[in-house]
User: What shape does this take?
Amino acid sequence: MNFIQPWFLIALPLIAVPIIIHLVNQRRFQTVPWAAMMFLMQASRMSAGYTKLRQWLILLMRALAVACLVFFTSRPLASGLIGLLGSRSNEVAIVLLDRSPSMQETPAGSGMTKLQSALSQLSGTLKTLGVQRVVVFDSANEKPIEFESPAALIADPSLMANGLTSDIPGMLERALLYVKNNRSGNVNVWICSDMRESDWRSRDGRWAADREGFMGLTQEVRFQVLDVGPASNENRSIRILSAKRVQGTQGVELSLSFKIERTLGANAPSAIQVPVEIEVGGARSVLAVDLQSESAEVNDFKIALSSENDNASLDRGYGLVRIPGDTNAADNTSYFVYEKPAPRRTVIVSDNPRVIEAIELCTNISPEQAIECVTETVVSTQLDSIDWNAVALVVWHEQLPEGRSLELLTQFIAQGGQVLLFPPETPNDTVALGVQWTSWQSLDSNAKGSSTIPDEDATLAKVQQWRNDSELLGNTLNGAPLPVGQLGIKRICGLLAEGTVLAAMSDTLPLLMRIDAAGSAKNGVYVCTTTPSLRDSTLASDGIVMYIAIQRVLAAGSARIGSTRMVSVGQPNVTLFENSVQMAGDTSVLSNQFAQHPGVYRCDELMVAQNRSADEDSGKLVSSEALATLFGSLNWSKIDVGASARSLVQEIWRWFVIVMLIALMVEAILCMPKRRQASLVGKAV
Amino acid sequence: MQGNISGRHSSPHRGSSVEFAEYRKYVPGDDLRRLDWRAFGRTDRYYVKEFEADTNLRCCVVVDTSGSMAYASKGFTSKIEYARQIAAAMSYLAAQQGDAVGLACVAEKIVQNIPPRRSAAHLKIILDTLENAKPSGDTQLPAILDEIAETIRQRALVIIISDFFVDPTILKGCFEHLRFRKHDVAAFHLLDPLEMEFSFQRPVRFTDMEGGQPLFVEPTEIADRYHKALKTYLTDLQRIVLETAVDYHRVITSEAYEHPMMRFLVGRTRGRGVR
Assistant: This one.
């Protein structure tokens, strides 16, 4: 048993007080000369056994009551968890700490963020358990942070919340490595989190590896998942969707799109008005947004970039949108940067441009007036002459690249460029970028599987399946699906590649695929297994789908062009922030932690607006069932600790109060005088 | 007629005298001289004629002067003082009626023994002896009563004034012994109110007034059992005095001594205790 105020146990000798009082009372007797000793002797003989037992019981009850009072004031702690942990080696505790923005939420009445309360509770519990060293893993630091005492957890600045979405399976991976390398004894792994799916990534393939790794350890590892509580019902968040510099009728304007979301509690009003503060170049304005449901989007809200600003800020600048403070301060601000849009440059590499001339049309027609689109058609031998830094998209319609061409393309992709591959007329055996063409196949029902070119009146095969939830063929912003089903395909080229199928003619015949880039987070290679040529498909004649898809991939590629970036925390390489200057954001953030915190940062000519990831605004939690699946047969338990500064262990003083009351009641019953018999006086004979 | 002079009060003993008392049926062993032949002539049955005789009385007052008799709870007369009052009053009454009165102060043994005599000077000796009687020592009442039963040769009224803190079964033998010797026995059982109530609250160390081991008790713990033991004792004593035809009077020392005296005298006037 442990105590919150163990110094009160000094009073434990007070247990002797009833005994001392009893003894003193016995010594304070009065001496009475007595004649009728024969009755006294008889009475004394008759009651000796019971009286002694009763007196001992009374003394016991009084001592018990005093002991309970002392224990009660010492605030004893106990729980099954602590009972289990108490007998284990507690020299080292491994803590996997979720420092994501959602952990900055401050539940009503607690006065502490979830992260603070988790650290406070964990610190108290580890201290209670006698843990001497704490090893903390988080997503911001590759190496674990070691603490010499649990008390150091509370105030350490390196454990403050950041903007990174946590990667629990990644942390487990590193914890496993740590346990293996350090040959620790039995280990308690504490996972502090608010159980967001975005942090737990329950579908991540690393979970199985982590599970098997821990199962294979010789020492026993016990996982304690500390759930700091669900999201508040009173939280609102704001996120910048886009910030574009446009030429308006009154001059240069900033077109802002942002989204406000809120959690709808049972007692929350259905409609509220949220004042959104917009700050651009030091000038502030407020926009009241009516929030009728759980979310509202404001699209293309125009703010004039006034002439009072200097010319430099007309071309490039930064700002933020902010909503009033609520339970979570981390999602109340979103940062943006803007600049005069650079031309979206497309390079078409083709040895037969006529086949894909429709693509040139798609890349040349800008979706927005302010954006200039430029297309350059070359052959593969001319690649060295291209300014790759200005290119957003490469459309490749030749034999797959080799040698210098492949090298240039690989570098381009690594820098965020996008590549769209179309099959050549006579594909060879070249393998590049994870792709290999095989041969053309006719989809004409009369000559199915034939490699001959279909006639003009050949039947058109329809697209059987496509992904409309995201990426190139995803639904439009208003939710309308692209008319992919109306496309007609006459023939496609066989493909050997691994990737995500975005559209397919059948299970074995992909039409559009994104190649999974091995060992890199960049997925900038798309493969279309047919061409826009009329002899191959109706991609050109039914050009909506192709135009939208190409504009989307072009937009993705153009993100690397220009001197501004809008990224999620953790997305850019940390080296980007070396020697950078914070333009906006939390000024208390240390310069070596810029990569972990939202804000606007400038590094040389590059200006980066960094915001929390979109997953953070999704309140989806990991269910208990999913958690059981993730841990499998590992020794684990989940503890709902709530958001407070109390220790995880349970106070059991109530039991001592109850025992004390029972002891006092029993003592009172034992002390209760029996009803006196009727007086014998006066019964004279 | 037991005495050798005529007294003022009627003798409790039936016999031949001048004042007719009653007829009773003849039983074998009766003196044939006491047969009423006239009654036989009238009824053809044998009757013995009994007369009530006026007689003088030999009264022996036995006062317990053991240590326990010194007990007196706060505000009340001690038992020895109470015994003195009763004994003096009894002696005075007997002397005034011309009866012989004697006194025995007893504790572990017979401390003072004044044989019954009939004179005014003798009464003074008795009163002086009572005044000087000091309670001390253990109670050996049963042995002493046996001794007294043997010592008093003539039939007498033996008045025992004591707290009788002895085993009732032993006491029964003493009473039977006295009764066997044809003595008329009266007993005044003196009890202090506190001995009856036992209303102590705090722990008490009781010291035996007759020299026994002290006893430390929590009165509230044993009060019930004390009362139970006392009640049993009194019940047993009550049964014994009935069985042995002893004129028994339980006296609480909180009441005035005239009351038990009155009960005693009225009882005797009505024939109680007449054997």
Notes: The first strand of chain B starts at residue 10 and ends at 15.
